[in-house]
Amino acid sequence: MMKHAVVIVGGGPTGLMLAAELALARIDVAVVERRKDQSVTGARAGGLHARTIEVLDQRGVAERFLSAGTVMQITGFAMVMLDISDFPTRHAYGLALAQEGIERVLAAWVDELAVPIYRERDVIDFTQDDAGVDVQLSDGSAIRAQYLVGCDGGRSIVRKKAGIEFPGWDPSLSYLIAECQAAEEPAWGIRRDERGVNGLAKLDDGKRMRILVNGPPVIRQSEETPTLDELRAALVGVWGTDFGVHNVTFISRFSDMTRQAAAYRERRVLLAGDAAHVHSPAGGQGLNIGVQDAVNLGWKLAQVVNGTSPENLLDTYQAERHPIGARVLKLTMAQTAIMRGDERTLAMHERLAELLQMDEPRQHTAAMMSGLGIRYDLGEGHPLLGRRMPDLDLEMDHDGSSKRVFTLLHHARPVLIHFGEPGVLDTAAPWKDRVQRVGARYTGAWELPALGAVDAPKAVLIRPDGYVAWIGDSTGKGLREALTNWFGRPGEERAEPLS
């Protein structure tokens, strides 16, 4: 029987990102993936939002993705584009890049990190005990792991076998999406009907087109590929003609079914990405929220596996990411509702579009959609607490060199930075084996998206995922508690429950 500390089921964007995070923490991790390579069938995600690009920048790999895609403003709500070019971030934009391209870059990075991927295999069953999980694969082999993470999509076998409920809402509509050729030149662009949005777009080669056409709800989405006859009938229903479509490259179906796992963890089994939440693709949230699930979970799982933190640190994964997922579900449901084409909904959409041209509504909504406005509930206090740490240009105390905050996060380790209060470094000395301690100067304004300028702190403790876990004053009050809660007890005092 093969053995690994962590087995990830699913080698899509979420699974690959989690594998990279664990590998950076030197955890023995492996991925089980049913595909033979990273080829993606059908039209899936089409890009990365600003916070996801920041997360990749925190690991030093953002340029790999930027060089493969096209930088542009992609943040939107209900097809109203939201310009984030005035947001205080180095990445005040999105990236247009097909999911297959995203996966290929991620897979190359994971390969560099020497993570084994067991391809063309499915998980068919598993059993867990107090010490680990025994995983049965479709080729007859088995793996013993300390933890199993399901990143295996909306129909997750891991979620089902773990007995985790998946409550939510059945579809209100379904869509066919296809790429093909047509005998007739269609009227390009968007057409709304009472159910929602339909669209015809010419592909780059000038010979084929992409079709998005809606239809009645499909309560139980079939595993079978939709037929050409279904596509033709749907086109006739909206445009009155099927345009003589032929030579279909791919055709698939999706819906606005909206569900979220009741729990993201069942003992030694965890869920991330679409295995934990499914929803309409409106706003391009799915891939992005999955990657950010992985970055939230990775360092926590690594610390539990290597014994520096107690197992109940994993409870903070659910506490932090479940509310984010729930909000995304509601955002996508709202967009689906407001994109219907009846006159009353059109009137409401027009009013919404007017509101989103105003700075405050635009910034508030764009911060949510781009991921830059995420705040984890870590208590009251400074506005930075629980939010992303800005990527400041620091002047380092020890040698006067310039270094970006995100550069300090490349190895997925926590960082304590003091700005003129060196005493906090002494407080953190017992954690020097796991927390980077640096002194630095920064003279610019501290700004947050949609919030503007905030008071400059005396010291900050930054988690490996880039979120601020503690804000300090000259006394260093609360630092020991924060270090213990997030990064375990110092020395040999380990693996006791969090307070």
TrEMBL record:
Say yes or no: keyword Iron present.
Answer: no
The domain of life is: Bacteria
Q: Does the keyword Transferase apply?
A: no
List the keywords (alphabetical): FAD, Flavoprotein, Monooxygenase, Oxidoreductase
Which cofactor does this sequence's record say it needs? FAD
- FAD-binding domain spans which residues? 5-330
Give a GO molecular function annotation for the protein: monooxygenase activity
Q: Which PANTHER family does this chain map to?
A: BINDING MONOOXYGENASE, PUTATIVE (JCVI)-RELATED (PTHR43004:SF19), TRK SYSTEM POTASSIUM UPTAKE PROTEIN (PTHR43004)
For this entry, the protein name equals: FAD-dependent monooxygenase
- Name its species: Pendulispora rubella
